[in-house]
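Why run this: before we spend reagent on co-expression, it is cheaper to look at a predicted model of the complex and decide which construct boundaries make sense. The entries below are exactly what would go into the expression plan.
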Amino acid sequence: MALRHAVLAALLDEELSGYQLAKAFDMGVANFWHALPQQLYAELAKLEKEGLVTGREVVQDTRPNKRLFQVTEAGLAELQRFAATANKPSFIRDDLLVKVQAADHVGAGKLIAQLTERAAFADAKIELFGGLLRQMRGDRSEEEFLRHGERIGPYLTCQRGLAFEQGNRDWCRQTAAILRERTAHVRR
Amino acid sequence: MALRHAVLAALLDEELSGYQLAKAFDMGVANFWHALPQQLYAELAKLEKEGLVTGREVVQDTRPNKRLFQVTEAGLAELQRFAATANKPSFIRDDLLVKVQAADHVGAGKLIAQLTERAAFADAKIELFGGLLRQMRGDRSEEEFLRHGERIGPYLTCQRGLAFEQGNRDWCRQTAAILRERTAHVRR
DNA sequence: AGTGATTAGTCATATATTTGAGTATCACGG
DNA sequence: CCGTGATACTCAAATATATGACTAATCACT
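The model came back. Tokens follow.
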């Protein structure tokens, strides 16, 4: 039940609408938490009812109006309380890994294609995250920024996301290569 | 809805009881899928009803009796069908990353402690996975094994688990170090 | 002789998440 | 001037996952 805390954490640095939040959860924030738009709207409504965030209507001429949310003091307090609680072990859920677990029984062709596709996807994320990191640290070096920057939280989690995707890409490529080699060998 | 497929994949190489499966999901298999015992028992019951696995009672003198499950041909077919479907992007859910995202607002002490704890946990998993990999490849070299071994699926996913935990450990250590340095600096 | 851990599960309930279908406005390309 | 896609949401229902409480035997110890 940490979706609420993920939302609070995402709203710490900027005021966002549900829609923007959904976009963020589909990119950067999704590094560490995954959720669909519907969930986010529902969670924001609950958080507002509980006074952990406040929304304000922003009237737009050219676009539908939106509601921007920001974390209240109570919200920050809740996040601080959460930060002090024991954490559950992180977990991954990945279709592709399930398939590779069954690799010896399921035909390598489709698997190789999926591994290749995933590697390409990981590459795209690596570039995206690289860009985000550069943007966050500006003209400072990484070390400089991490030592003296004001908001390093998002930077640190983005670093983890980057490393994760690099690991993903490397493993996908290597695994695909191994499967290719084996099928080539078997065919003869 | 890939829990069923994770269960099938886990049962491919050995006949297991629900209890053993739960253990496996708490260790190796949990690399790529996470589930509680209750879920596994429920899923096994459903899979049996649908004819994707068959269970057989094993009477034990010294322990309570158990039911061992194995994948049927229909189960294997279902897994093969699944292996050919598009995969959803993998996702992580991690309390600790949420907390680090909020690092600039929540007090570093607790965070550093949790990062250190997580790094130690990752270390334990690294050792465990290293041992599992050695066991699986026996006296063969890794390259030899991956080229000519019979069942490499579990080996490949375990490799991914190992790399993930190494990344986890490194990031936790580095992040903890950065937070420590910053608090030391601020205190002055 | 009693306590706690391990094996081997079951049941009920609550919460979280996903699936699917809608609503409405505006911008842009052809 | 029509379709496509983006912005900005909402609602209902189905499914998956998590929480908590149980049973019951055996082992390893103190």
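Residues 1, 3, 35-36, 38-39, 62-64 of chain B lie near DNA strand D (CB under 10 Å from a C1'). The helical segments of chain B are 3-11, 18-25, 37-49, 73-84, 95-101, 108-137, 142-148, 153-187. Bring this page to Monday's planning discussion.
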